[in-house]
Structures are given as C-alpha cells and as structure tokens.
Amino acid sequence: MLNKIFRIATRQSPLALWQAQYVQQRLMAAHPGLQVELVPMVTKGDIILDTPLAKVGGKGLFVKELELAMLENRADLAVHSMKDVPVDFPEGLGLVTICEREDPRDAFVSNLYNSIDELPQGAIVGTSSLRRQCQLSARRPDLIIRSLRGNVGTRLGKLDAGEYDAIILAAAGLKRLGLNDRIRQAMPAEISLPAVGQGAVGIECRLDDHELMTLLQALNHADTDVCVRAERAMNTRLEGGCQVPIGSFAVLTDDQLWLRGLVGSPDGHHMVVGERRGPREQAEQMGISLAEELLDGGARDILRDVYQGQPPA
Ligand SMILES: NCc1[nH]cc(CCC(=O)O)c1CC(=O)O
C-alpha cells in the first residue's frame, strides 16, 4: 500500500493550491510514509473570466475537469471549496470527507471605508455573487453593484486599482492566503448570510477506492460535516445547480444545530428568510423542511425569475 502514490487533482489558483497542499500535508501527517502528490489542472472556470458565472453555466465549471481526471484514473482525489461543489456527483464519485471549517463569514474589503454602513451614497461595490448582491442591496439600495471575477489576488488588484470603493470576498480565502489584514469587516451572518458550505474544504474521490476513503477518515471534521450537510440539504431541496441568491448557514452548539436560510432576488427587493433549531441527528431533515418553508414563503417565485435569466445547469 505504501508504494502507491495518491494524486490530488487541483486547480492552480493560489487558493486551490493552498487547499490541495493542506490536504496533502494533513494526509501525510496522519499516515506517515504515505505518498501524496498534486496534479495541477486548468478548468473552464479558470479560462472564462470576463462573464458572470451565472451566465456561463455556474460553479460546476470549476469541478467538472477534476472529476473527469478521477474517473479516467489520472487522479485519485480532488479538494474543493464546499461552496463550489454542485449538488449532484457523477456516477462513481462522491464527497467523502469535510475538513474543519475556516471563518465562514463574508469579508468587507476596502482601502477607504471600514464597513458597509460607512460607504457613502452611491458607492461602487464589487461582487459577482447574487447572494451578496441581494443582501448588500437590501441593506443599502443606493449602492452600485459591479461584477467582479477572477481569483482572490486579481480581485484585490482591481480594488487597489480604484475600480471599486469596496469588494466582498470570503473571509476564509483571505485568511488561508495570509491576507487577513485586508479584512475591514467580517460581516456578521445577520448582515450577510454566508453561502452553503462557505469556508469548508471537501474531498471527493472514487467511491470504490476503499483504501483512500479509509485514509481520508482521519481528516473528517464531524461538526463541520453536520453543519454543511444541513446547509446542502436545504440547497438541494431548493435548486438545480446554477448560481443562485441563496444563503444557508448552520452553527452547532452542544449538539444543537441552528440553521438559517435566505432566498432573495438579486436586486434585494425580495427576501425570504427562515431558521430551524434541532438536534444534530436531524441536520438533513431540518435543511429540507426549512427549504420547503422558504419555497412556500415566496422563494419559489424568486427562484423561477432568477432561473429564467440563466441557462440550464
Ligand atoms: N466562488 C469562489 C470561491 N470559492 C471559495 C471561496 C473562498 C473560500 C471558501 O469559501 O471556502 C471563493 C472566493 C470568494 O468567495 O471570495
């Protein structure tokens, strides 16, 4: 077994490489002598940089090529930001491990202002996330939201070049890349409910690779796993895979789960929110029942309108 080399398929953005190296190092630390190497790849999501993700086919763009590599046995595992992992997996592949969550919050980043509430009237804020756009606009209808794509470094560069007064990024990505000091405000969930799985890293592999799945168990973080399961169950019940204005965020305290959900129109005019509290064993049921409450409370109409402007997943 120790002669075998396990290959991690990874994108080449600094954040993707950080996450792949993190899993590589944790696997080698948990299993001394194990050989793990990276297989860097380019995905469609890395090539199409000038179009909002929602218009070019959604987040799946970042994972399809990595999945093909595993199915064709050119790689054994892939490391994903859970936020970018679609609901469904190709036959034969699955998500087997979720690592401990980093800061799940959205980060307000600016060279001029310390928080969203400090922004002057009509300030320009960069984000391509419909979820962030919705919540920003609901709180501050005067703000002008402009598209912002590219990896974390590219986005910060555009802010520094003066294209925006502020941008919103995931705190987790900034922290992992050592850019903590760029965060002016870690936005509380009450101001910006995070995306499903935000801040968590997940590992996908072939479901018949029992040897690898056993090795990966050492990296699973049970509390993160249960929170992300609740969030993903809500998301699964709500949608079909495109980029959507959905927030879903669970926290666990003494085995009690608190799940909050949000579906909104991109312009922030409509927002449906709800929550569930219950024992951790019911994570997935809570996600499903919250989704159904949101759907009946107006999310069905909001999502229909959003999907009409997008290609199918
Ligand atoms: N959509 C891109 C993406 N996917 C994961 C992260 C950050 C890290 C994470 O949430 O785990 C980011 C960047 C961002 O939203 O700022």
UniProtKB/TrEMBL annotation:
EC number: 2.5.1.61
Domain Porphobilinogen deaminase C-terminal: 227-295
Molecular function GO labels: hydroxymethylbilane synthase activity
Enzyme class name: transferase
Pfam families membership: Porphobil_deam (PF01379), Porphobil_deamC (PF03900)
Cofactor binding summary note: Binds 1 dipyrromethane group covalently.
Boundaries of every Porphobilinogen deaminase N-terminal domain copy: 6-213
Assigned keywords, A-Z: Porphyrin biosynthesis, Transferase
Claim: Nucleotidyltransferase is one of the keywords in the record: no
A Gene Ontology biological process term: protoporphyrinogen IX biosynthetic process
Catalytic activity field: 4 porphobilinogen + H2O = hydroxymethylbilane + 4 NH4(+)
Source superkingdom: Bacteria
S-(dipyrrolylmethanemethyl)cysteine modification, residue list: 242
Any single GO CC term annotated in Swiss-Prot or TrEMBL for this entry: cytoplasm
Annotated pathway: Porphyrin-containing compound metabolism; protoporphyrin-IX biosynthesis; coproporphyrinogen-III from 5-aminolevulinate: step 2/4
Cofactor: dipyrromethane
Subunit (UniProt): Monomer.
More details: The porphobilinogen subunits are added to the dipyrromethane group.
Primary role: Tetrapolymerization of the monopyrrole PBG into the hydroxymethylbilane pre-uroporphyrinogen in several discrete steps.
Protein name per UniProt: Porphobilinogen deaminase
Native organism: Pantoea rodasii
Gene name linked to the record: hemC
